[in-house]
């Protein structure tokens, strides 16, 4: 699969006249709790030749492809990535932390990660993660039954929101560091669930342990309440503009 992904990225570059600066795995494989039937969620950041950006015409700043077999792939232009970063969107923050990297330009990942530190908003990130957790919690049936995939769409975002609240920093992408926030009594239980998820299909239904259910309900309510007292951040585009100009100049390929 690695070779297929690498070949596909090269083909996309040639077809669209772009340069891919960074490509990684997102989704459950990147979060480090895949199921046997998990897709490969490949995400990439790219740049066009410099002149592409010098036009009065509207341009496209993303590339989407139909899901093909196990491969789910799309990419964003560096301009779109930086626009989202100004809004403290969590997606770029997660991509650049991925443990599975398929392509990266020299220093690009480190430079973008350093830039992201200036655009972290507690309230924006917390609300994003709570929104995902809320949606997954709504799929619980009969009080405590849920698909194992959906359970982790409760746990990881909830722990990410907890990280943002308590540590006041961008949440880690992978589940390992996030699990340090769990009470000791629940760490083994969640580790066992990760092991189960590695062998079960994503649609496998489990019964949530009462202690874990109480914990998630309590933490969701607590973090939601705490977030109402946080201020909304406003970020300027100065650093982003400088990064953008430097990137499109550095990687101009015409």
Automatic annotation (TrEMBL):
An example of a Pfam family matching this protein is RlaP
Database matches in InterPro entries: RlaP
What name has this protein been given in UniProt? Answer: Nucleotidyltransferase
